[in-house]
Amino acid sequence: MTGVSIRDLVLEFPAASVRALDGLDLEVAEGSSMAIVGESGSGKSTLASVIGRLQPDSAHIPRGRVLVGEQDVLALSSNDLRVFRRERLAYIAQDPIGSLDPTMRIGRQLQLVLRTIGDDTSTARQTGLLEGMQIAHPERVLRLFPHQISGGMAQRVAIAMAMCRRPRLLIADEPTAALDAQVREEVIRLMFEQARHLGTTILWLSHDLTAVSRWCDEVAVMYAGRVVERGPAGSVFDTPVHPYTRALAHADPSRAARGERLAGIPGTPPLLHGESLGCAFAPRCAFALDECHAIRPEPSSIRHSLCIRTDELVANDREEVSA
Fold first, then answer.
1. Which residue among 85, 128, 159, 183 is least enclosed by CB atoms within 10 Å?
2. In the listed set 127, 151, 166, which residue is the last one of a domain according to the structure?
3. Which residues form the domain of 219?
4. How many CB atoms within 10 Å of residue 154?
5. Are strands 218-223 and 60-68 parallel, antiparallel or unpaired?
6. What is the pLDDT of residues 278-288, one digit of tens each?
């Protein structure tokens, strides 16, 4: 099994003078499931690309370490990187149809994937993979092109293609965003069941806080290229610590009482042009002090929270509960 350890990772786009990752730290235990949540622009997809060293050529990584198991991904040779991607890593993309080759039938695509890992490429094997994803009439589906199947079925095919290689690490980038609610829940269930059966570590990028709490072991909340809070999925949104996590939880429609007005987060995420000297969330934070704009926060002992007021805010929460 494969865990992930990321230390002080910085990624910049020099031509645009943009810093996408600003000293990010993350630990994912082997065989566990970690959700990465945060607004668009927080750096989630950039992080996912770096783990497979799939970032654009225009990106520059001045410092940082990315370990997947015992392998230093940033130091792998071209040949070792190809082996790593083929044997240990799998991605499930957001667009199910777009992730499949439109010129090939489903069966042919499955056959090619199985061939690369030296597996049985027979029709029976392909049919078994689709049956495992609860696809009806798999023999018929094997003869179809991607445009001839629904989005939900396409995502099930994509998951089957990813998991048949028995990856040690699965990165799922909003894999159900284009699906309706009923299909979304079924696809998520199948993805997690397959991963747990194989002992695969999951890194799931998502905006669905309710699903994240239900399915994942841990949650990492990203903002401005850093993980600002990390902890057990069941408690991060029930008892959030960092002000940004609190704001996300208050803006989640599924957590609002009937008739309750949602509290939006004012402002927009920052576009960093270098290292954030203070707290990047300070301009939007209801708890910010003057020093928050000048002091770069370091992880607290409470859920890795990047806030200089973490201990104070948690103490105030406890007082309110006991009052």
1. 128
2. 166
3. 1-88+169-255
4. 22
5. unpaired
6. 999 999 999 99
